[in-house]
Amino acid sequence: MENRRDNLLEALKAIRRSIWVFHLNTGSCNACDIEILDVLTPYFDVERFGIKPVASPRHADLVLMTGPVTRKTLPKVVNALRAVPRPRLVLAIGACAVGGGIWHDSYSVSGGVEGLKKVLEENGVEIDKLVYVPGCPARPEAIIYGVAVLLGIAKPKVKEEVVEVK
Amino acid sequence: MVDFEPSKQDLEEVRAQLTEKLGHIARSVEYVPGAGILVEVPVKRIREAVKIIHNDLDAYLRTVAGVDERPVKGVFSAYYVFGLDSKHVNIIVVAYMDSDKPSIPSVVDIAPSADWYELEMYDLLGIRVEGRRLYRFILPEDWPEGLYPLRKDVAYNIRPEPSLRSREAISGPRIPVGPYHPALHEPEYFELYVEGERVVDVRYNGFHVHRGIEKLGESRFTYQQVPFLAERICGICGFVHSVCYTQAVENAARIDVPERALYIRSLVLEVERLHSHLLWIGVACHLLGYDAGFMHAWRIREKTMVLAELLTGSRKTYGINLVGGVRKDINRDKIGKVLDTVKWVEDEFKKLVEVITSVPQVVKRATGTGILPKHDARAYSVVGPVARASGLNRDVRRDYPYAAYKEVSFKVPVYSEGDNLARLLVRVDEVLESIEIIRQLLDQLPQGPIMAEELEIPEGRIGVSSVEAPRGEDIHFIITGKGRPYRWRVRAPTYQNIPALKVMLKDAPLADAPLTIASIDPCFSCTDRVVVVDARTRKRRIISLRKLSKINCIGCLI
Amino acid sequence: MQLEVNIALSIVLFVCLTLLAPLLDGIERKIRAKLHSRIGPPSILQTWYDILKLFSKELVLPEGGLLVPLLVGLLYTLALVTLSIIPYGVPNPFTLGLPDILLVLVLVIALQLLWTVSSLASGNPYATIGVFREAGLGLVNEFFLALSLIALALITGSSSFTGLVGFRLTLSYILLLVVLGIACYVASGRIPFDIGEAEPELASGVLVEFSGPVLGLALYAHYLKRLILYAILADLIVLPFANVLGLASIGVFLLVLVVLWIVFAVVSVVLGRSRIDLAPRSLLKIYTPLTIAYSVLGYLGA
Amino acid sequence: MSLLKPFKLIGIAHRSGVVTVRYPFQPPLVTPEFRGRIRIDASKCIGCGACVNACPSNALTLVDDGERRALNYFIGRCIYCGRCADVCPVGAITISREFELATDNIGDLNSRVIHYKATCSCCGEETTATERMISYVVSRVPVTETYVHMGSRCRKRRFIEGLMMGRGMIYGESER
Q1: Domain layout of chain A by residue ranges
Q2: Going along B150-220, which residue ranges are E strands?
Q3: What is the assigned CATH class of domain B213-369+402-408+446-491?
Q4: Which positions of chain D have pLDDT values less than 70?
């Protein structure tokens, strides 16, 4: 366990200057996907962090996952994630991927990454680090911030808040 | 002010024509305000009716909605919505079917664009369509037989366990291309049947993004929540859907929407068109290997995204539409910013287009490729820039005016070549027209409230509404129910355009396929993957479109 | 004594050039970013970072087993060998008096062929299409590349780069340079001529099959190939003046090399990608008249 | 020269310069209108659930647990439409401009306001309303005070009793 965490930290360190990302659309409405494209274009230009998208999951250091994981894409998503070399780092982008989104309980989706996790477990595909990026769609800056959180450069700002009213 | 009404004279003319030609089969012909002329025919005679309306009257098939009306009327029904562009009126043919074993004759040989609608009726409602091949189309392969999600006795959140078969599919790649798995990037694909480098046939294997939206809108949501759901049908032209939905409800319930709200809707629709066309032009450049064009188109587009956020509060999925009006007003400060931005966009865009159209590879590869002849365009009832590039002069904004479009004047660009370059030029012209429309709208913006005061939505009304999306005509069909739509049928523009790809891709070189597929501007992420099948050996190879077009992926350009 | 200095210098230059290749790609990425109105990679070392990261990642063997990694290894070695025998602004001592123009020609064509072969070996379905496309374009391009290099030997009257030193520039030589320039541009797999292979295909076609170090090595070999092609061009420009410049010609050579790389990079940014049926035809249209022109002029001695 | 025309791009790039926003070292491209996560002011919230009814994506839910009732906000599912803020009767919900919400722990994305249910002044059982809701109603419409402190069952009984007494029926007969 301890060993694994060290490995993960080391791997995160190794990719800090050069992060190759693979975009995995699991049935999203495209809004998050165009925001992902947006971070590559002049205004946000993530190449300034050494981030570069790749066409094959084999080359990927990080998977950008969008969409609620529809029933039809489910087997293919599992296959794609299996093809990613360890450590598998996943950024779940947008309300759909994080919590199933507006259609979280519809008949043809599996409710985002939480529903996917179960299927992945059954099929023996492990995810080493998963970071959630809420937003509908997640704005380009939020995606950049999410990558920073994943790499451990930024600390998550959001905390669970429970207030009791008497 | 309700949606556009056809003139009395046109209406009478069409009604007289219908009574004359359909008199012997129609049970009734009546005008339903907010929807169109409703013609009821016996289910056995639907083919005759469609033949007369589609071929003799020259109307376009806009959508078909199958409805489970058993709880209300004890029947299944099918609504065929035709548009008579020249008279600005819809003709809705309805046929009622037996509640136990619903079936209806196929009309696909008369109107080829009915193909998908019939498959969908079969798949989601269990209506048998006689006289054609039926197969699983939208639902996943492991979905249980006999469970039809759009039927009223099926819960919206039913989740049958995925079968063992699909589990096997998970545990091994289905098509042996090594670790390169199918559907890695985007979840839709086309199957191109090729001989050598020549495409001989195309099959679309899609609907991976089917999220059960229509069912959700009919069950979990309320009238005022559906606009937010509708907006998420498509993340690129979502506002079109929310406008279309709210208009359909307003039409059905005859709600008076304040004029200022209509202007704001039109304004935001045009801003959305700007961003969408700029996005498309960028992606087209990228597909042609001209990444500088892609980057600069998106640089210009970014300003429209910031503008959209200023106007609505969100960069995408704006969320300002409600039945009866809009939620966010604009003020003088914002108007000034809008005008500044569109001026800037106009200048920069003109400069960029001049450069893009001078790049020899872009021009050479777009000219004469992916041709859609006019008669095929007509047969497939294609919409939007695809139709206009093939010489069909159709634009919902002019033919069925909605929101504030009857108050502004604009040109509808039409080209007759039908190739990829024509579709590019249509969109370039439309960007400039949109900017003009935005200026006119802001110039005439009326004062007043932005939300209707009375909102009463009676049950059992029919409403049809159409909006010209950046990709073409979007159409929503609604039957009102208690607290929420009883039936909500959405037909996105791409739905109408994809079947026409068969014609555009046939006999074309493989290298042109990506650009041609992209040229109909399907939500582009849906077009990323093709299966290439060798027509002679039936061998399947999966390749990504990106590679096909020799594009390393956006990454390699930075 | 002179020879030993020369050898030492050549070794130093060889090492510098191997290190320079990814660096030049880093500069190219920075320039491309500027033309896109954005910042681009954090530094010109970015390509190096990418390669080093790939070496630190695990190697997942493709289904074809060791064949593909071995081919990539061979490719890289071949690239290094080719780089070691080209002159660096001054005649290279490693050629040992062999006819090095022809040697370089054979090695460059071998390098191109090896790319194609690795394409086939990867068993990637896409690569098959790519190989045929490349064959179409390569047939035209490599033919003219070979023809020009042979013509070069004939015009200068020597089959070695040494023969170029002090060569008086003629019109035919300049035309020949133009043809070679275009041929090298096309051979380096740049837009609009990357249709068949090169970066898009080999970077994602063959490379899609594996990850980690092998991918890094293949990318590295690709940049080296580019460097070799441009270095040959730079030599042809600089060598005629080598006797005037003396040792400074090494500096001029490096400068010309960098400038060529940058100019080619800019050209590839402002153009789009051609199509397999268009590209060979347009190349033929350019090559044929130029080749005839330099042949005639060369025969006349102009 | 039309061949040189594509090179005009260099001019375009030069004129526009580098446009990149250097977020996170520069402020993000956020306009004042931007809708980020919502904030629920627990001191104002009365736990009525109007926001829950309006929320299209079920990001806001009411969870009853014995005497407690929690208003749960799951940021991960929120679509940032701001409808909750529109319908809140007491203005407890405000829309912030926060968007830096990424985290590796999904629990961080929950926030909860826990209310206590009022007890029926008659039978002492928990009612369906929270204490805050009752004081809100009382402050608005003081006349309802007698009924408002009762659970729905007792309220119904008391009402029927009142009706019967008014008609001169005997007290207690209403209990079947």
Answers
A1: 2-151
A2: 189-195, 198-205
A3: mainly alpha
A4: 1, 142-145, 169-176
Bond prior to D24 in cis (omega within 30° of 0): yes
> Two tokens at B147?
């469970």
Q: Is residue D4 part of a domain?
A: no
Domain region containing D69: 21-166
The CA distance from B85 to B390, in Å, is 17
Contacts of D29 in chain B (CB under 8 A): 302, 306
Return the SS3 of A92: strand
Closest approach of A166 to chain B, Cα-based (Å): 32
Break chain B into its structural domains and give their ranges: 8-130, 174-209+503-557, 213-369+402-408+446-491
What is the tens place of the pLDDT at every residue in C124-164? 655 666 677 777 787 888 888 898 888 888 888 888 888 88
**What CATH number does residue D59 fall under?**
3.30.70.20
* Contact map slice: D 2-61 vs C, CB within 8 A: 6-7, 9-10, 13, 16-20, 22
Query: From CA B403, how far away is CA B399, in angstroms rounded?
Result: 13
What is the spatial distance between Cα C137 and Cα B149, in angstroms, rounded to a whole number?
Answer: 53
What's the number of domains chain D is made of?
1
Nearest by CB to D2, from B226, B299, B358: name it: B358
Taking the CB of residue C157, how many other CB atoms lie within 10 A of it?
A: 8
Give the end-to-end CA distance of chain B in Å, rounded to a whole number: 50
Rounded to two decimals, the pTM is 0.90
C124 interfacial to chain B (CB closer than 8 Å): yes
Strand D110-119 relative to strand D126-130, pairing: antiparallel
pLDDT band at B166 (very low <50, low <70, confident <90, very high): very low
* Fold topology of B8-130: Beta Polymerase; domain 2 (3.30.460)
Q: Do A144 and D45 make contact, defined as CB atoms within 8 angstroms?
A: no
First to last CA, chain D: 101
Topology annotation, domain A2-151: Rossmann fold (3.40.50)
A17-41 per-position pLDDT tens digit: 899 998 888 888 888 888 998 998 9
Q: For the beta carbon of residue D1, count every other beta carbon within 10 angstroms.
A: 5
- How far apart, in whole angstroms, are the C-alpha atoms of residue A111 and residue B211? 10
Q: What does the pLDDT look like over C55-92, one tens digit per residue?
A: 888 777 766 667 778 888 999 999 999 998 888 888 77
In this prediction, residue B167 carries a pLDDT of: 43
Q: Is there a domain that residue D9 lies in? A: no
**Cβ–Cβ under 8 Å, residues B224 and B217:** no
Helices (H), chain D: 8-16, 50-54, 83-87, 131-140, 145-148, 152-166
